[in-house]
TrEMBL record:
The species this protein was found in: Devosia psychrophila
Family matches, as PANTHER family: AB HYDROLASE-1 DOMAIN-CONTAINING PROTEIN (PTHR43433:SF5), HYDROLASE, ALPHA/BETA FOLD FAMILY PROTEIN (PTHR43433)
Matches recorded under InterPro entries: AB_hydrolase (IPR050471), AB_hydrolase_1 (IPR000073), AB_hydrolase_fold (IPR029058)
Domain of life, source organism: Bacteria
Pfam families listed in its UniProt record: Abhydrolase_1
Protein name: AB hydrolase-1 domain-containing protein
Domain AB hydrolase-1, first and last residues per copy: 25-162
Gene3D superfamilies: alpha/beta hydrolase
Amino acid sequence: MPAHQTKTLPVAGATLHYEIWGSGPLIVIIPGGPQDAGVFAGLADQLSDRYTVLSFDPRGNSRTMTDTQPGDLDVDVIADDVAALIAANGGGPAFIFGTSGGAQIGLNLAARYPTKVSVLIAHEPPSMMLLADPEPALAGDRALHETYRRDGVEAAMGQFLAENGLDGTPDCDMPPKVAETFGRIGGNFEYWFAHGMLPLSTYRPDVEALRNGAPRIVVAIGTGSVGQPIEAMSQAVADQLGIKSTAFPGDHMGFESDVDGFAAAMTYAFLEDRHD
């Protein structure tokens, strides 16, 4: 198998762009928010000596084409797309890694397609609806959406990064491939603020289904996210499922800032049952 392949998959209402690295048991990476498959190239390279790593551009983002103008993001539909990708690449069950909004989609997939999933790592899901009092977090997202509507994408991006303790400053010396990915992601923020952020944030995971008959779930929280709003939202998922959260390297973008450590943490989490 070539080290890296780019493919497409026709599904209902869209043609998905996806990428594959390496060979071995299948890992599917579900991007979060405005991300696409290219964001995970470094992580995939680290894992590709022992796994087949697949990631994709969700509807509304980058190179996936939809038959009509995409409307508000539908978590069920994106999870259906992931199930179709698994079916087209061996049928599963697959290891699943979802980050941020992609973790919300991973939780939906695990609840609705349990036989497609071997283990799910839900990395920092923004599951505000599982908080004891979600209203403050909801108010924050509504305010961010209003900033986008009133002042545009750049103002909303600045507000989002500041509120979540993230640094959005681009590296002026980034390699051409990384710069290309960075440019694509920048173009996805319009859709995410307009149609993706609120549906992903207000999605309530089906806790009952996830407790009964779902695959093993790892709720991963970055050591650099302690004290940030995402920590409480992610911990709420673990609490509702009755499991302990797992510390992962870095912050919300730990898969980029500490690729080696993150790949090692993923590998251990996927194979945890073998260590018991």
